[in-house]
Design a protein that fits this description.
Butyryl-Coa Dehydrogenase, subunit A, domain 1, Butyryl-CoA Dehydrogenase, subunit A, domain 2, 4-stranded mixed beta sheet, 4-stranded antiparallel beta sheet
Length: about 400
Amino acid sequence: MDFTLTPEIEDIRLRTRAFVAEHVLPLEADRSQWDAHENIREDVLVPLRAKARAAGLWAPQSPKAMGGMELPVVARAVMYEEAARSIFGPSAFNCMAPDDGNMSLLARVATPAQQEKWLRPIVRGEVRSAFAMTEPAPGGGSDPGMIVTQAERRQGGWSISGRKWFITGADGAAHFIVIARTSDDSRRGLTAFLYHRDQPGWRIVRRIPILGPEEHGGHCELEFDGLEVADENVLMTVGDGLRVTQIRLGPARLTHCMRWLGWSKRCLEIAQAYVNERVSFGVRLADRESVQIKLGEVAQRIAIGRLLTMHAAWKLDQGDLARKEVSMAKVHVADTLHQAADVGIQLNGARGYSKDTILEWIYRAARAARLVDGASEVHMMVLARFMRTEDRDFWRWSTPDRV
């Protein structure tokens, strides 16, 4: 667990930092570059992405053979944190959810033919993708075992019927992964299917209004009414749907943490710059003990979050599922992001509550952090189960023979 950065990773970090400062932050500062959903405009993003690709800072999670960087998870943690100094940074480097998680998943488990058809266009930035799992009650949410969307066997394929909602990025996505029930088996009852937006038998019911801000493509409700998927577009094998969700969601939760740490640091950056200059009742805010305590507490929480995230990333790189490590990082960093934005707003006063800074943007995004990819309470339940079964070994050290 030596987190000393190699020269190669440090070079990526520094180049990412410089790119964000030179190319991304100026666009973020100009609200005319934003779209109606408070994200970077598509016509602005396209040339920005071309610059990132030319700089060799593109698709860090994807195979080199497809134009990606193929970074280990620890290196991604370093790059994503730097990318997320700007709220638009991850999109610039093609490492924003949900594409980030979908690319990682397809790179790991898709067949070569599936990778060529479904993965390569996402890596190139030609299309966007979505992962359709969550359903309205009584369907599956944090518990995928409750999924009720059905896939029925047809000659040479499957017919899918059901409903999904809060599917991130669905409006505008071209490539989809949908999880549906193919049997009543508790462990082998789900299957993952790949489909294209132009296939008949499904529709976007609505783009669900949310507190915002929104990723590209929003959060949508989908209806499936006989979507036909050929056998060749089953991801892994029939009955592997639960494994697909586990392979995808664990690392994806951690990449959220990487980005949230960058946003948390940005909140402190904005707050520190303001209190350094603002004088109240004859005293500079930065010199007030109460302000120093607020900033120091958040700085400490960010440092803890980085260690939790890097530990989980290291475990993933060793081939471990890192379930409890990812859960610990996810809960802590989500709370830290919320606190960082809250403190940033409080110290900036009315300025922080306004749209003169991105603090209010991050504050709204932070509220979703405690819900996406499993509510914080669910992750606490996961940790409690581990502690119950592992007892004192819950806190065991890693050794050469045991990660």
